[in-house]
What does this fold into?
Amino acid sequence: MIHSEAMARLQAAYKLSSHEPMQTLPQGKARYVIQTYMAIYLTGLNVSATRRYRNPIANIEHKYPGWNDTLKFLDNLQLEAVGNRPDYEFSDITDVVEEAGER
It folds into this structure.
């Protein structure tokens, strides 16, 4: 079960990505939501103040030098957790971020 703080980050990631959680997303957009989630997590972005932020991924390499390795990790995790499908549901994205939190 996803922790409430993780759920708040995931909701914020959807909002910052201009998507709704109940939308089915193509793989590339789902990947962006997952990356946004991880950027929020790694930078400690205040999810209750997401209106002030437009793109937490912008310039993240300067704030978090391991970002490129993180992207590889997330891509592998996404494939492992839900496979290489063309579309992702909210539950699929939740599975990925839950698994990321466990590692």
